[in-house]
Specification:
Low-confidence stretches: 306-337
Radius of gyration: 28 Å
CATH topology of the largest domain: Rossmann fold
Largest sheet: 5 strands, parallel
CATH class of the largest domain: Alpha Beta
Number of strands: 15
CATH superfamily of the largest domain: HUPs
Length: about 500
Amino acid sequence: MPIVLISSSPHGSGGELAQNLAKKTGWPLYSRDQVVEKAHETGIKLSRLETSIIKSPVISENLAREKNLYLALVTKTICETAKNGNLIYYGRAGHLLSPGISGLLRVGLGSALEMRIEHAMKQLNLPQEKARDYLEKLDEDIKKWIHYVHREDSQNPLVYDLFLNLQHMSIENATAILYETALLQDFKFTVESQQKMDDKCLAANAKIHLADHIETSGMDLSVRAVNGVVTVTYMPRQEASADHISRALEELSGCRETICTMAETNILWIQESFDPKGKNFDQVTQLAKRWGAAVELLRLDSEGKDRSQIPVMIENQGGSLSLKTDTGGVEDDDADTGYDDKGLARTVEKLVALGRSAGGFPISGAGREVIDAVKDNNNYSLIVLGNLFLSKGNETSTRLTRELGLDLREKLKVPVIASGELHSRFLFGKTQAFKLLGFILTTVLIYWLVFTFQKPILNVLGGDLHSKFKWAASIGVALFVPVVAYVYSTVTGLVLKIIDID
């Protein structure tokens, strides 16, 4: 089931290439123009959103919701159109749609500016210079659109699987290359890919349902779907409307269960394995309670092994959650599926019981895959990195974890911290108590010495000693002030931590 996502600059040859591929293969073709038309039919104010992104550095909350609704509509369109077959999609940023799903062929096209100018002159009846100015301004506007909507640099080559330069290649040859590439084993859907696409489609449908429902249309909601379970996080100020969320999703097709969590923000916790009885769990949940946050779990399989059996979250009698394996309807005599979810289900279940769950899901890969999996729902206040890359050895594990943290911080603009630093940075325990006591005593000692020996100190700063050794006074002040500031700020910081102010 090849799904080809083609991205090309306006007035290039992307549309022609997509149409040629559709004629050659018989695969359905869907373009951005069709999605835009559908968006206008559903009431999405896309033109106003585009204008605001281009002209204003600040986007209102209402327009931010319009952006999320538009992305949900695009996701739903692609997933439902390709559900039972192949698909060719062509747009200005087609390669950035449906991030985190393997098996999609993401294609970029490069067309010479002079060729695009000729196309614009013919299609828009413009003189050459005006056509050039128009395309340069349009390219700049699209760059802003991609940066805001998809959180990507339009020039980043790592987001393409294939890039074709059409300056020295015919459309026919480019079509042939694209067709042969789409049929490669690397771009065939696995069971895992299909499950992820189903989850994205379900989450997109949930967002659209919530936007269509009067009581939930103006709410700031974070929505994620994993194996038929839809997790919705809402703000404390929206508690009175929380019951409407479940009602709005009652008739949502494919939704087995809805979990609603009230939280001011989310904490993303990434590990290879989870233990709801472990020290890290206690620290993360303690911090979540202080911040009024929900915790979203991401179990990272850094080995990237393709699983033939996909874990599905199910609800047992009594309301507990567990994982079963999708076997395509074939039941094994042995009840043990052989799949180890590394404590993910048990930890999600414990978070649900605490009212702190924002869902949990597994992925395979590394930095790029993690970013693609979470950037659609990026309302995190903190990302916690736990045990990762354990099979690589201690030094390599530390380096890869640090690199992943830097990538997440750069792409998502969110603070990233290792789980081992949680207690010292955000929580208060015995170590912090001894530290506070030590720094209080140091502060008292410093002030006692200053007030006790005022006369010699003033002599150094402005008396006879100062006139003889001016350099000594300057050095003394330069060393003394930062030390006092550090000691005093440490005391105040720890005191604020005791009263839950970060």
